[in-house]
Amino acid sequence: MHQSKFYRLIVDPEYRIGRHLFFIVTLGIITFNQVFIGYQESLAHLGGKIYLIGLLSFATYLLTTYVNYFVLIPKFLLRERYVTYVLSSVIFVFLLLCVGISMEYSIRTFLGLSHRIISYTNPLILVDSLSASAITIICFWSMCAVTLFRKWNTMNAHIMALEYKYLESEVNKLKGQVSPVILSKALQKAAYLANSDAHKSSQILMQLGQLLRYQLYECDREKVFLHSEITFIKQFLELKKLITDDPFDYHLEVKGNTNKAIISPLLVIVLLQSILVQAEVKQLDVVIEAVNKNIVFQCKFTDRITLADENRQDVMEKLDTLYPDLYALTVYGGSIELKLEVV
After folding, report:
1. What are phi and psi for residue 104, nearest 5 degrees?
2. What mean pLDDT value characterizes the chain?
3. Helix or strand (DSSP H, E) at 312
4. In terms of CB atoms within 10 Å, which of 132, 193, 216, 325 comes out highest?
5. Cα–Cα separations (whole angstroms), residue 106 to 103, 314, 334
6. C-alpha–C-alpha distance, residues 206 and 274, integer Å
C-alpha cells in the first residue's frame, strides 16, 4: 500500500527522533512567545533575563508534556482507563497552572517588577489564567491523538498480518486438496495388481507420480496457467479410471485459449473430488471454456447426485478466499457450473 511522506513521518519508528525534535522546537517557540507577551511591559528592565524566564517556563511545560506522554498515556489511556486519564490530565493542568502563577509571583517579586495580577490569592485568578494553559491542553491532546493513531495503525497492521497468514493458510490447504482417500486407494490398487497386472500397476504409479510432481512443484506458485491445470485434471481423471472397480468413463472438452489464462492451482479438482469421493460416478462430462477474462467449468453426471452441504460449504469457503465476489457457483442434481472472473 502506498503511504504518503506525512503518514510515514507520524507512524514510522525511523522518524521518532525527528518527531520529538519537531515537537520540542514548536513547544519552545510557543512558550517563549507566551513569556514575551506576559512580560512585555518589563522587557527593557529584564534584558537577557527574559530568556532565563522563558527557559524555565519551557522546561516546566516540557516536563509536564513528557510525563503525560511516557507515564499517563501508556498507563491509563492505552489501557482504556479513559476516566482515570482525563482526571489525571485535569489535575496536571491545574497543578501546572498553579506552578505558573507561583513562578510569575516569585520572579516579579525577586526582580522588583510590578505585578500584573492584583491579588494572587483570589480563586478567580485560576479562571483568568485558563487561557495561559491552552498550550498545555493542546500539547496533551496532540500527543494523545498521535499516540492513538499509531496504536490504531499498529493494530490494523497486526490484523492485516493475521488475515494474510489466514489467507496463506487457506491457500496452502487448498493446494493440498488432492484427496488422501484417492491417493491411498491408488497405492493399494497398484500393490494389488503388481503381480497379476504389472502393466496397469505401472500406469497407476506413473499417473500418481505425475499428480504428485505437479502438486509439489507447480502448486508452490500463487497462479498457474489454465492449460497446466487442465492437464492435471486429465491425469487425475485417468487415475480415477484406472483405480475404480466399477465402470467409469469421462469426457473432457476444452474451449477457448487456455494458454494465457491463469488461475489458482488445484481449484477445479476440489469440485471434482467433492463428487467423486462422495459417490461412485459412472460417467463424467467436463467442459472448460476460457473467454476473455472469464473461465467457465461445467461438470455433468449421468447419476442424479449433487454436492453434500458440508462439501459445498467447504468449496465456497475456498472460493471466497481466492476469488471473493469474482465467482458464481451453481449446483443442480447431476451438474455443477462454476464461473470465474480472473484478473
Report:
1. -65, -40
2. 79
3. helix 309-322
4. 193
5. 5, 77, 94
6. 24
Q: What is the pTM of this model?
A: 0.50
Q: Give the whole-angstrom CA distance, residue 108 versus residue 34.
A: 16
Q: What are the backbone angles phi and psi of residue 324, rounded to the nearest 5°?
A: -60, 130
329 burial (CB, 10 Å; 0-12 / 13-18 / 19+) is: middle
Residue 226 has pLDDT above 60, yes or no: yes
Q: Which of 266, 328, 259 is nearest to 298 (CA)?
A: 328
pLDDT number for residue 1: 47
Q: Which three cell numbers stand for residue 115?
A: 505585578
Q: Determine the pLDDT at residue 27.
A: 84
Please state whether beta strands 283-291 and 249-256 pair in parallel, antiparallel, or not at all (unpaired).
parallel
Rounded to 5°, the CA angle 26-57-72 comes to 70
Q: What angle do CA 174, 179, 183 make, to 5 degrees?
A: 135
Least confident of 37-51, 165-179, 216-230: 165-179
- pLDDT grade, residue 178 (50/70/90)? low
H helix or E strand, kind and range, residue 310: helix 309-322
Burial class (CB in 10 A: 0-12, 13-18, 19+), 289: middle
Closest CA to 216 of 226, 208, 227: 208
Q: Furthest-apart CA pair in the chain: how many Å?
A: 118
pLDDT digits (tens, 9 = 90+) for 279-338: 667 888 889 888 888 888 888 876 666 666 767 777 787 778 778 888 888 887 778 888
Q: What is the rounded average pLDDT of the residues 226-241?
A: 88
Using CB atoms within 10 Å of the CB of residue 133, give its burial: 0 to 12 exposed, 13 to 18 middle, 19+ buried.
Answer: middle
Beta strand 294-301 with 335-341 is: antiparallel
Give the residue-averaged pLDDT of 138-151: 76
CB-based contact 290:258 (threshold 8 Å) = yes
Residue 343 CA to residue 326 CA, distance in Å, equals: 9
